[in-house]
Amino acid sequence: MRNHDxxxxxxxxxxxxxxxxxxxxxxVAAERVVIRVPFDFVVGSTPFPPGEYALTFGVLLRDAMxxxxxxxxxxxxxMTRRDPTTRxxxxxxxxxxxxxxxxxxxxxxxxxxxxxREIAQSAVEAEIAKAWPTPTVADLRxxxxxxx
Length: 148
Fold this sequence. Notes:
Blueprint: H1 2-27, E1 31-37, E2 41-43, E3 46-48, E4 51-57, E5 64-69, E6 75-82, E7 94-100, E8 103-110, E9 116-119, H2 123-131, E10 136-141, E11 144-146
Antiparallel strand pairs: 1-4, 1-11, 2-3, 4-5, 5-6, 6-9, 7-8, 7-10, 8-9
């Protein structure tokens, strides 16, 4: 009898854990915005050329953001941080870049629902920021938002 109980629990516990993980992953609602960027820029340590990009949140993890060039086969995934201080209703989404001379780094994305996601500075941006303590910013309006 004891052997039967052990085999039951050795099967039941992994099934319950898998169900919990799958449920929590499916509960993460992916959100996607599309923007047209007219200049070269960097996300994390990945450079991107001008073009149309899809930014998708919550694909792998709730705070992960995937960026994908619609014209090229170039992708990157970065972790974002939610900024609860900016949860105000917005007329539309907004994507912000920190600008240091001719170098631009994606710094935040605001969705039309008012959620703001910040992207941490990469080591390259942090090094440039030492010489430019206050970057200028470039804001782009989101062209469209959709659920993937």
